[in-house]
Amino acid sequence: MLAACQGFVLAENIPGIDEFFKINPPEEAEVIVWDSLKELLDILTPLAPNLNDEAQRAFREQMGKRARKRVLTEHTYAHRLEKILQWAEEL
């Protein structure tokens, strides 16, 4: 997953995504979500001509770092295996 690689993530706002990643407020978000193609274009349009802008680059890098930290602290295979074993014990 891109978040594990410290990448800047734009994701469709599917039900439950906010249970895995912080999406608001933007200055604390780990991923940016969109609900429609128009909203995605509204997000991408100002980014495209300014990809090399230092402030935007820093914003994307910080978001990527936050996303990676979340993945490493909550979403590794070890975390999933632990959850599966907990469910098995409850059976």
Q: What can you tell me about this protein's structure?
A:
Keywords: Transferase. GO terms for molecular function: transferase activity. InterPro entries: YkvP/CgeB_Glyco_trans-like (IPR055259). Pfam families: Glyco_trans_1_2. Residues 2-86 form the Spore protein YkvP/CgeB glycosyl transferase-like domain. By secondary structure, the chain is mostly helical. The chain has one domain (2-90). Helix content is 55%, strand content 7%. It contains four helices and two strands; from the N terminus they run βαβααα. The chain has helices at 17-20, 37-47, 54-74, 77-90, and strands at 10-12, 32-34. Strands 1-2 form a two-stranded parallel ribbon. Strand 1, helix 1 and strand 2 (32-34) form a beta-alpha-beta unit. The radius of gyration is 16 Å and the shape is elongated. The model has no long low-confidence stretch (mean pLDDT 92).
Helix and strand succession? Answer: EHEHHH
The SS-based structural class is mainly alpha
**Head-to-tail CA distance between termini:** 31 Å
Unreliable stretches (pLDDT < 50, length at least 5) are none
Tell me the strand order in the biggest sheet. Answer: 1-2
The figure for the number of domains is 1
The largest pleated sheet is described as: 2 strands, parallel
Mean pLDDT: 92
How many individual helices?
4
The percent range for strand residues is 5-15%
Supply Rg: 16 Å
- Overall outline: elongated
Number of strands: 2
Query: Helical content, roughly?
Result: 40-55%
